[in-house]
Amino acid sequence: MLNNTALQPAVLDDIGPPSWCYETRFNGWNAAPDILVPDYWKQFRAPAPYLHYILGCLYICLMSVALIGNAIVIYIFSVSKSLRTPTNMFVIGLAMADLLMMSKTPVFIYNCFHLGPVFGQLGCDIYAIVGTYSGIGSAFCNAVIAYDRYRVIVHPFSKSGMTMTKAIAILVIVYLYITPFAILPALKIWSRFVPEGFLTSCSSDFYMQDFNGRSYIVGTWFFGWFIPVAAIIFFYAQIFLAVKDHEEKIKEQARKMNVDSFRSNEALKNSSAEVRIAKTAMCVVLLFLTSWVPYILVAFIAGFSDPKLKRVTPVISMIPAMTIKGSACFDPFFYALSHPRYRLELQNKLPWLCINEKAEASGPADDSVSKTTEHVA
């Protein structure tokens, strides 16, 4: 049975965008009655079928790139003894969060080619639960990797080392921490999960404009996004200041001794390796922010603006949904581009990729870097 409430005829005020972008039927015309379609989306005309098909094809490309790239990361880091360290558990955790994020895209693609939600409210809830775990999990994995870089580079002689048990425990705590944000909306206790935009994907109800709905938006933003981002910025700022201070002290000591530099080539290589690792991780974080900021902005605009203004259209709402998927695609390629040991293992395990990495790139210089530092990108 179709959602007949969306079959009302369009009037002039409802036309909005040109007809080649939208149908004459209203959004949600083919939604099953058990699925919670917000009234906000019902006031828009349904997107034209070709928009659904284009979006479905784009997601097929994103899914393929992310699944292949992250699967290779997990495989290489798992089977290579030189990369099997406690710290790299966080790298594997990040790759698994990316894989989890992309695991729900087949549902989205299936919905796209059927022009609407197919699996009802239960399918919508499962889709949004997976998205919550993977999205916030990715943010906290980046934060934990930043903390580990901070611990190793800024406090290299700290007695609190990272063990495999501690690394696994941290990942378990992270996902326990995320659980209320994923489960409570599914139980309709704190906000709720509903279709968004094209009604082919699901997230929390940004247009539930009461204390319940708005508190979820603010709570998720603060506890699930702002805290890990603030931690990331703090840790990398401390790394930058520590490296800068260390370099200045070396130069000052060299001037006092009337030499250009008394650091050996080996020490220079080790220092540059640690700085390179920090810069690489920072690039990953910046791209992560670029992927998620549009989504956060849309959530706040939707939750705290007058729905009558129609500031967020179905097409606009799907743009940040796509940028989020980009974060799951670029992570593995940063590992490949910036991690000599990873590239070497990639060459050994998957020679058909034609990496052509020289063994010297991960030779003594990398070996002398601390065990937890040398393997993380």
UniProtKB/TrEMBL annotation:
Major subcellular site: membrane
Keywords associated with the record: Chromophore, Disulfide bond, G-protein coupled receptor, Membrane, Photoreceptor protein, Receptor, Retinal protein, Sensory transduction, Transducer, Transmembrane, Transmembrane helix, Vision
Transmembrane segment boundaries: 50-77, 89-110, 126-147, 168-190, 222-243, 281-303, 315-337
Gene3D superfamilies: Rhodopsin 7-helix transmembrane proteins (1.20.1070.10)
Residue stretches making up the G-protein coupled receptors family 1 profile domain: 69-335
Entries under InterPro entries matching the protein: GPCR_opsins, GPCR_Rhodpsn, GPCR_Rhodpsn_7TM, Opsin
Keyword Transmembrane helix found: yes
Cellular localisation: Membrane
GO cellular component, one term: membrane
GO biological process: phototransduction; visual perception
Gene Ontology molecular function: G protein-coupled receptor activity; photoreceptor activity
Topology term for the membrane: Multi-pass membrane protein
PANTHER family assigned to the protein according to its UniProt record, in alphabetical order: OPSIN
Family of the protein in this entry: Belongs to the G-protein coupled receptor 1 family. Opsin subfamily.
Protein name according to UniProt: Kumopsin3
Organism: Hasarius adansoni
